UniProtKB/TrEMBL annotation:
NCBIfam families: GG-red-SF (TIGR02032). Gene3D superfamilies: FAD/NAD(P)-binding domain. This is FAD-binding domain-containing protein. Residues 59-369 form the FAD-binding domain. Pfam families: FAD_binding_3. InterPro entries: FAD-bd, FAD/NAD-bd_sf, Geranylgeranyl_Rdtase_fam, Geranylgeranyl_reductase.
Amino acid sequence: MDRLTQQQRTAVLATASAVGASVIAYTLYKSLSRSSSSSRPRKAAKGYSPKPLPPGCFDAVIVGAGPSGGTAAYYLAKVGAQVALLDKEHFPRDKYCGDAVCTPAIKILEEMGVLDELRQNNECHFADCGGFVSPSGLSYIGTSQHKLGEAAACAVKRTHLDERISRCAARTGADFKEGFEVTSTTFDKQAGLWKVTSAKGEEVSGRVLVIADGATSRLATKLGYCTEPAKGICSRAFIEGGTHNADFDGVCFYQRESLPGYSAIFRHANDELNFCYYLIPCGKDDMCGNVKESDLKRLHENALKSDPFISKAVGPNAKVERMRAAALRLGGQGLKTTYDDHLLIIGDAAGHIDPLTGEGIHTAMMGGKAAAETILDMRADGDFSKAAAKCYEQRWMKYYGHDFYLSKKGAELIWRYPILLDACANEMQRKGDAMMAMWAEIMTNIRPKTYFLRPDVACQLGFAVVREFWNQKIMRRPDQYTPPAAPAA
Ligand SMILES: Cc1cc2nc3c(=O)[nH]c(=O)nc-3n(C[C@H](O)[C@H](O)[C@H](O)COP(=O)(O)OP(=O)(O)OC[C@H]3O[C@@H](n4cnc5c(N)ncnc54)[C@H](O)[C@@H]3O)c2cc1C
């Protein structure tokens, strides 16, 4: 009887905390909603003497033809601006990635006409059947398209995506120079022009330098804008189509050991799978929760071999590619600013990857579009000063940057309290696809993370936490991730 009273007391306390959390969440939601809507782009400052563009020079020189650089080039070229798009590689080229393209990027691809090309060539696969597995092994796999009216993400191989975007920019009028590895840049303040030189000694000059050279950004580092190496990392391995057992389009697996990181499987149009393991910086310096960058290989291989959910989906006969890995620069890490006189930094070079999900294709493309809009304003005003360039930061903050703070806090929360993810999975099991669709919308930037703080959503999740607390701590529900005990000898 005494023990029951104690349990009841715990449950009452947990309920009170859930209600309290909802009230705090409401206050936060209101204040964050206000602050994000007040960051409107300002008109560029005047008073900067406009100079005609010298012959052979470009309005913008973009270094890097990934999704950020390619998108910026397209939107500049579309209205007749002179733009050079430079990349050290020859396209098509591979880029290590999970290949999950979220809705905001799908919308931009549609606007560019690239989505039709991808569809016609069977290079994109819209994810319908998907879900996630929580740290205690609660899983939900459902369908979200019928609830959302559209897929929250699609899978496109980066060899296809980046080539189609950059060729589209070139068709629209951008001068796309492949095999152009930028090794030095100099700024002539008098003339207001950047000179960019390649490893082979070729030169290109332009009014605005756009740095889009990816997460390790040699250029932003060399020019002093980026002061730290990227702290996150992610692995990738393709699994040959027809050799695996996966019957879903996309699932995230939140293994307890590596929270707030996770692993994910995405299916391509040709039935190939993309398996990735994201390690997200969190907690002490140089740590990704309780693990380090050096743990990635072990985690990646163990997940494929021993994770009960992943090994079942992959199956015993799967042909799995060797693990590859690349850096993740999340939430603006290592940069104090993304603009200066005649200069903008976009995409991974600016650290524009969501610090909760590790996804950055959509932010790279939205940032590329924001950069193009800003350069066009600067060009119209003849003002390329730092004050005019500031509009770029106001734009990206409005489009997606306002979410970074809550994403970072979200990552910290799930690292400290994995039960929060268990509660979400539990709620999905109860509410089905409606809850799954809401989760997908928030995780893919269709809705801002502040949506989690809406009183109705926060209350629903608060009660789910209480229920999960009851199941785990009081009813002692076994952890689905715990390997079964070895039989007695
Ligand atoms: C393993 C992994 C998995 C990921 N999974 C996902 C996912 O599923 N979904 C998602 O949305 N995001 C994902 N991301 C993040 C995503 O890949 C990036 O956010 C995105 O590629 C950023 O685009 P970008 O154009 O800024 O940079 P990049 O795509 O890195 O492009 C940079 C370009 O610059 C060029 N370059 C570099 N240096 C020079 C130079 N000196 N001169 C000329 N050119 C140069 C490079 O060749 C490259 O083409 C993942 C990242 C990793 C590492």
